[in-house]
Amino acid sequence: MSIEKFKGKTVLVTGSCGTVGAELVRQLVAGPTEHVVCVDNNETELFFQIEKYRSTGKVSGHLADIRDLDALKLRMRGVDIVLHAAALKHVGLCEDSPNQAIQTNILGTQNVIDAALASGVERVLFTSSDKAVNPTNVMGTSKLMGERLMTAAAETYGKPLASRGGNELGTIFASTRFGNVLGSRGSVVPLFRRQIEAGGPITLTDRRMTRFIMTLSEAAALVLDSVWLAVGGEVLVTKMPVARIEDIAHVMRDQLAGDRNIDIVEIGAKPGEKMYEELMNDEEVRRTWEKGDFFVTLSAFADSQADEYAHLHDCLRPDRPYNSAHEAAMTRTELTRYLLERKVLV
């Protein structure tokens, strides 16, 4: 398993108190990682995170914002791997305050890159979003820019050092892109749960909407896998099952409402919200390979025949974009089993 590859490594997680960041920390601490450096700007949650893992002797936590380059440089000293999970992620709030999304998701990502280069970090992985594909909102656009900054860093500072005959390999920069994490703060699961507990109604933006879904532990495990699959500059797209939002509402009502008669009502799509999720678009198909649980999308500048991509040469190639409108959605029976087996409805 890829978690074994973290043995002896010092890993820094930005946004360590967020939903994905906290799960990454949990899995890293449970594994053979030498040390985990937690960086977040949420003082209270960071305090509790440090206390939670104090007895392990493997975790240190530091109050810092990714908008502060000097703070990142300070905390990246001696770090081998950076998992960049810090971001502003709520579509509506980013739409309302686009400058804040730029400051954190774009300029903050560039700060992570610059700090990693200054500190000689081995690998940096950026956690992106399905909303970066053909973005229709500020949040998605800022995430796409984050991906492109990582690719540019890889092409400028990473692989070329080795190809030019230097002894130093350079930092490996890459991105991983996945869809909805069930139970995360921005997902519909906690929203529907609160609405059911309050007696309803359950509110749907549009009954036709489909989404890729994955549990938090599965998403974090795939992020850790993608760290070691990356050569530099790729976007690693996780393969995910598809569900209709309406079906999630019906299944949750059936499982959690008991005898109560709770209505499901449609309220209309929010500003910038998509009818379906995209994890790979038409343009990316031509430079993408399937590798295990991932689609590996190379940089537009990459030479796919180069030796560094030899691990992809015998892999299958996708023949269509990867989006939730094109993939078969789970039936309600399948969805119920999926959610129960993964204890999402507990």
Output the strand order for the largest sheet. 3-2-1-4-5-6-10-15-14
Listing every helix as H and every strand as E from the N terminus to the C terminus, the arrangement reads EHEHEHEHHEHHEEHEEHEEHEEHEEEH
Structural class: alpha/beta
CATH topology: Rossmann fold
* SS summary, helix count: 12
The CATH architecture assignment turns out to be 3-Layer(aba) Sandwich
Secondary-structure map with pairings?
Elements: E1 10-14, H1 19-30, E2 35-40, H2 43-53, E3 59-63, H3 69-75, E4 81-84, H4 91-96, H5 98-119, E5 123-129, H6 138-158, H7 160-163, E6 172-178, E7 180-182, H8 188-197, E8 202-204, E9 210-215, H9 216-229, E10 235-238, E11 242-244, H10 245-256, E12 264-266, E13 278-280, H11 282-285, E14 288-291, E15 294-297, E16 322-323, H12 332-341
Parallel strand pairs: 1-2, 1-4, 2-3, 4-5, 5-6, 6-10, 7-9, 8-12
Antiparallel strand pairs: 9-11, 10-15, 13-16, 14-15
